[in-house]
């Protein structure tokens, strides 16, 4: 025995996904899972807010218009709990005013529907990958 202890594999990073449309939610869940993430998906903003495990997630992807509370309110609630990770707002109702409000609320990015799959996957990867250390 050489005294080395094998490092345990790290779990897949967790993404929070809130989308009230079942087919869109499932599609985004499959897309992000294929990119190497575990997905905690929610059909409603209330379900996400009630989940005690949201603090473990590294990123939020939320729809803007939903019945109980909109995506801006979802992030506001998470921020009030101390959650400070990156967030992406997805909307079919994009406007300069909405983008400005989303950025003020703390969203890193607003992506308009219909989504191009690679744009969401690339955005999540870009926002969740730690910067590379400079080489000496």
Could you characterize what this model shows?
The protein has 136 residues and is α/β, with parallel strands linked by helices. It has one domain (15-127): Rossmann fold, CATH 3.40.50. It is built from 5 helices and 5 strands, in the order βαβαβαβαβα. A 5-stranded parallel β-sheet has the order 2-1-3-4-5, sandwiched between helices. The longest helix is centred in the first third of the chain and has 13 residues, at 22-34. Residues 1-9 have low confidence and may be disordered.
The average pLDDT is 89
Share of β-strand residues: 15-25%
Cα gyration radius (Å): 16 Å
Q: What class, by secondary structure content?
A: alpha/beta
CATH fold-level topology:
Rossmann fold
CATH architecture: 3-Layer(aba) Sandwich
Order of helical and strand elements? EHEHEHEHEH
Summarize the structure.
The chain has 5 helices and 5 strands, in the order βαβαβαβαβα. It is of the alpha/beta class and 136 residues long. It has a 5-stranded parallel sheet, sandwiched between helices.
Describe the structure using short key phrases.
about 140 residues; alpha/beta; Rossmann fold; 5 strands; about 40% helix; globular; disordered N terminus
SSE order and pairing:
Elements: E1 14-18, H1 22-34, E2 38-42, H2 45-50, E3 59-63, H3 71-80, E4 87-91, H4 96-105, E5 109-112, H5 117-128
Parallel strand pairs: 1-2, 1-3, 3-4, 4-5
